Amino acid sequence: MVELQFCQLSTAGDRRINQDCMAARVCPDYALFMVADGLGGHHAGERASRFLCRGIFSLLEKYQPMISGNPERTFSKWIEEAITEMRRQFADDPMADKAYTTCAILYLDNSKTVTAHCGDTRIYRLNRERVLWRTRDHSLIQQMLDEGLLSEREMGVHPEQNQLTRSIGVLYQHKADIAVHPAMEKDETFILCSDGFWEFIKENEIIGLAQKEVDEQALKKYVKLMAFRAGGKSDNITVQMVKARS
Prior knowledge:
With about 250 residues, the protein is an alpha+beta fold.
């Protein structure tokens, strides 16, 4: 697998509690990254994102050896079992019926890239010239974008920006979109982020991240800029940057 550079940041922004959660594991022959954005009340959302991340990573050694056979099926079963673990973690907590979360998961190895996402937490794949693709949000504003009713830039400031069409919860679950892509190449960058990061970022700024070495100080500047643009109403901001070393 290509040699990776990696850094991540998460901040509560202007919120009292950070309901985002992030996790990562980089091994010699594969790597796994995840961002989840909890919703549904302060502590309910915080627990939902944390429990889902915990479930995914606790099952990593079980499911990683199966990925080469059928990545889509393996990831589907993996996420289903993680949700079962999430349900067990909540137990009889009365907040459970209000707890749900988005997620974005990125898996890399020598032969492929696998993504899984639900909600509006995103994965971007880019090189030094352009954004190659991003995951398609499960939201009303994504549907409006698809219908040509607004632009990509307008998505983050639209009044219905937080209206999701899919999420993962304890009492109900929507399927994550799972996709298999070519393996990561040298000079490519992946960005995983919650909506607190992408809603105010410009495309040229995302591409700008691909021009730099992975540097936590540079990432901090971006996070501070996104919070500043929110005008004192910043959501939680979480971002992971994964770069293939040249």
